[in-house]
């Protein structure tokens, strides 16, 4: 049987939603960034394992990302590269939403990995984000005492939207209590920068080949959410980072559905009930 079965209370909630007795929770705009680097054999991706105490995706290995902060749409954010309007065309969003998504992508990547896709000018990028002052700013961004616009302004930096490439669009299934409307981006690790274990929502981090991550998931060694699994499957087709960045992507919105399969409630993605296949 395909799909992911929904037992117990989650299954009952799914039945209530299908019957119209319960309204789904609205999905919040969010952004996720797949950071890539060249490994010894082929391209590698950066994954974080979410703490078991987290309310959403506990214990799962994920890419850096998170919800859009209302201040991410601030037009004061210094910007270089494709405009919010251009990103809006790619993701079928209005300009303000697109601005927020790109800013959230860059901000969350810095918060969760220490990697900053910004530079002193439109054709440069920060070479090093280690040190106590950078860490203080990162923590201030996390607790929202510092806005991303003020952070960039204070350091004389501009967001480099040209360092991002669009990859996918996933919406959390309607049965979930916490839902996200997430745009996936890919980006290369900037020269000179390095990721670091920054704590917070994650308790482990790893650089891994997409194919190896999939093998570990199939063997039960790690847990991957379906969007992460699917994205890794897509990325495993590319050998080098430039190949990923050069890929032509048509962004199709994917939202796993609630369906009854042989009398049981399942979450399914495809018409034939195969879910998360690479």
Automatic annotation (TrEMBL):
Q: Which residues form a coiled coil?
A: none
Q: Which GO terms describe its molecular function?
A: hydrolase activity, acting on acid anhydrides, in phosphorus-containing anhydrides; metal ion binding
Which domain of life does the UniProt lineage start with? Bacteria
Gene3D superfamilies xrefs: Nucleoside Triphosphate Pyrophosphohydrolase
Q: Which species does the entry assign this protein to?
A: Streptosporangium subroseum
Key words of the record: Hydrolase, Magnesium, Manganese, Metal-binding
For the Nudix hydrolase domain, which residue ranges apply?
26-230
InterPro entries given in the database record? NUDIX_hydrolase-like_dom_sf (IPR015797), NUDIX_hydrolase_dom (IPR000086), NUDT19 (IPR039121)
Instruction: Return the protein name.
Output: Nudix hydrolase domain-containing protein
Which cofactors does this protein require? Mn(2+); Mg(2+)
PROSITE patterns, per this entry? Answer: NUDIX
């Amino acid at each position: 049987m395909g799909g992911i079965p929904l037992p117990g209370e989650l299954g009952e909630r799914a039945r209530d939603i299908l019957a119209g007795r319960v309204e789904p929770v609205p999905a919040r705009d969010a952004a996720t960034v797949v950071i890539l680097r060249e490994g010894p054999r082929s391209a590698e991706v950066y994954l974080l394992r979410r703490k078991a105490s987290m309310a959403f995706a506990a214990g799962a290995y994920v890419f850096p990302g998170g919800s859009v902060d209302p201040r991410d749409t601030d037009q004061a954010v210094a910007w270089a590269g494709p405009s919010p309007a251009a990103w809006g065309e790619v993701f079928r969003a209005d300009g303000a939403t697109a601005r927020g998504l790109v800013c959230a992508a860059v901000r969350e990547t810095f918060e969760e990995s220490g990697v900053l896709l910004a530079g002193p000018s439109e054709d440069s990028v920060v070479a090093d984000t280690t040190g106590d002052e950078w860490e203080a700013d990162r923590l201030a961004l996390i607790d929202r005492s510092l806005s991303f616009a003020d952070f960039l302004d204070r350091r004389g930096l501009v967001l480099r939207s040209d360092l991002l490439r669009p990859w996918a669009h996933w919406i959390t299934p309607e049965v979930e209590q916490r839902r996200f409307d997430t745009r996936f981006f890919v980006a290369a690790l900037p020269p000179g920068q390095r990721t670091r274990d920054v704590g917070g929502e994650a308790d482990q981090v790893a650089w891994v080949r997409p194919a190896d991550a999939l093998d570990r998931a199939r063997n039960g060694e790690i847990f991957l959410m379906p969007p992460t699994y699917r994205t890794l499957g897509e990325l495993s087709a590319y050998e080098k980072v430039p190949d990923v960045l050069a890929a032509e992507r048509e962004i199709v919105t994917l939202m796993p559905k609630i369906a009854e399969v042989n009398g049981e409630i399942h979450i399914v993605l495809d018409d034939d009930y195969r879910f998360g296949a690479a």
